[in-house]
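To fix ideas, we reproduce below a protein record of this kind.
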Amino acid sequence: MNLHRAYRLLALFYTVLLLVGAIALLAGGGTALSLAQLALGAMAVVGLWGYILKRGFMNPRMWRPLAALLAVAAVVQLWAVLNLSLSGELLTWMLASAIFSVLLVVILYRYGDRDQALWATPEELEAARRLEALLEEGDGPLQAEASDGQRESRVTVTRDGDGFRASVTRRRHAERESFEERFHHPATLVFFLEKFAGVSVQDFTRPDAA
């Protein structure tokens, strides 16, 4: 069994577990807390399938906070199991929820990393391929400049080990700011350049080619 198939079986197991919980609630075997846990679990399972299928579901910014929420909930539930006198039904819900949350926390944290191809649009992936081709055509950095009448941006892009580094200088009236960002995937770099620097791949040249 390869790793991808193992992940699919894991996601199927969590999905079935979620359905069992939903059936139990419909049969009257749960509380308001159980309903909240089930809703949280449903969101986590969506993220789990997205991670396994390499597809971006909803907004990437929501998954790491959800992972943190699951981690906090798991700790609170384990504390309650160990320190409070709970009914058998509530004890079962809390213990099962805490145990099965651990792996989801790790997976959702990874899934929420914006610097992945799965969060890129087809246009960003195509622009990323063109940017990589430009970088491979010769040595040295790529540079681009952009102006919208009020703000000017100057960007330098270089290879940084297995990733990429973007150095940005922005000017607006008398104000000037400079910063650097590093990326693993070029499509994330393209998104950053278009959103925060106002430049596209077509704007890039080499300093000696200007």
Remarks:
- The two ends are 54 Å apart (CA to CA).
- Helices lie at 3-26, 32-53, 63-83, 88-111, 122-136, 186-197.
- The mean pLDDT is 87.
